[in-house]
Amino acid sequence: MSGLAFEDVAAGDELPELVRGPMTTTHVMRWSAAIENWHRIHYDQPFAVGHDGLPGLLVNGSFKQHLLAQLMRGWLEPAGWLARIEMSFRGMDLVGDTLTAHGRVTEVAQRDGLGLVVCEIGIRNQRGEEGTTGSATGVLPLRGGPAVPYPFPGLGA
Amino acid sequence: MTFVTDEIRALIGVPGPRFEALAPLGADELRRFVQAVLEPDPVHWDADAARARRYGTVVAPPLYVIHAVRRAPGTPDPLDRLQREPDWDGLDVGAGFGGLPPIDVPLTRVLNGGTEAEFFRLPALGTLICSQSRYIDIADREGRSGPMVIARIETRYSDQDGEPLAQVVNTVIMR
């Protein structure tokens, strides 16, 4: 299978960015409806601003989680596998914002005939605010080596 | 100030109820999801694209599992609460706890402290997604704004045969 191999990657490499937006109320409403999340801070402007005192409607954290998974899988696949991802939400992104998911390789290692790549990842908006930060571990085949097993057994301890 | 008693600590490690999706993963449900999440990878809707990859068949994105268990028809409508309580924010706080017993502490705000996920397999069309949660940690912490309780909830997702799909740990901050 063609695609990224472990030897193609070095610490410091930047991942291709993924851009979403501007995120409109309609996008956020469609997402909330798709997952049946009725939290009004995502689609009810008078409630979000007047009752909860927010500066506007908020883009769902759950949407941003998927965006980071898309960032990683768009880079790793088809040969690689997204094995682990973690993230935390430190700041708000508002309706009207444009989200840019970005990542950088921080660590590469070989283990059991496969390559592991650790990335720091995050989402920033057009104001330069990093509201979401995290890290992810991908598994890549060595060039000419065996494919990444699927189902993937896990990274272990 | 500490809130976590031995009684609360005894909740750690006890598996909660096992949940199942209402139906096996269907193509139309998945279509609606991937459109809403602006998913770019055709393995999530195109059978030919999926056949050319490791998946063999159309699959859901890796974090789809966290949305898989839905309210069954005929059960009480959570939005009824808006009739009695027009200022309710629409957030079902308990939903983040995977059916686990609540942590009985006098803290009212519940914040999402982050997510960690490991992936083993993507749910294919026809997979019945099952989940089961447990607390893996409940601890007091002194925050800048006062005392907090931090709970870590692990949820294991599997298919109808018990084969693992993903494992997700959510950190919940109560303050």
Your description of this structure?
- The complex is a heterodimer of chains A (157) and B (175).
- With 157 residues, chain A is of the alpha+beta class.
- Chain A has helices at residues 25-35, 45-51, 61-76; strands at residues 18-20, 81-89, 99-111, 114-124, 130-141.
- In chain A, strands 1-3-4-5-2 form a 5-stranded antiparallel sheet, with helices on one face.
- Chain A is elongated, with a radius of gyration of 18 Å.
- Chain B has a single domain (6-89, 105-174), classed as Hotdog Thioesterase (Thiol Ester Dehydrase, Chain A).
- A 5-stranded antiparallel sheet of chain B has the order 1-3-4-5-2, with no helix packed on it.
- Chain B is globular and about 60 Å long.
- Chain B is of the alpha+beta class and 175 residues long.
- Strand 2 of chain A pairs antiparallel with strand 2 of chain B, so a sheet runs across the interface.
Q: In summary, what is this structure?
A:
The complex is a heterodimer of chains A (157) and B (175). With 157 residues, chain A is an alpha+beta fold.
User: How many beta-strand segments of chain A?
Assistant: 5
- Residue stretches of chain A low in confidence (pLDDT < 50, at least 5 long) are none
CATH topology of chain A: Thiol Ester Dehydrase, Chain A
- The radius of gyration computed from the alpha-carbon positions of chain B, rounded to a whole number of angstroms, is 19 Å
Give short descriptive properties of this protein.
heterodimer; A: 157 residues; alpha+beta; Thiol Ester Dehydrase, Chain A; five-stranded antiparallel β-sheet; 5 strands; B: 175 residues; 4 helices; 29% strand
Please write out the topology.
The complex is a heterodimer of chains A (157) and B (175).
Chain A: E1 18-20, H1 25-35, H2 45-51, H3 61-76, E2 81-89, E3 99-111, E4 114-124, E5 130-141
Antiparallel strand pairs in A: 1-3, 2-5, 3-4, 4-5
Chain B: H1 6-9, E1 18-20, H2 27-36, H3 47-51, H4 81-84, E2 110-119, E3 130-143, E4 146-158, E5 164-174
Antiparallel strand pairs in B: 1-3, 2-5, 3-4, 4-5
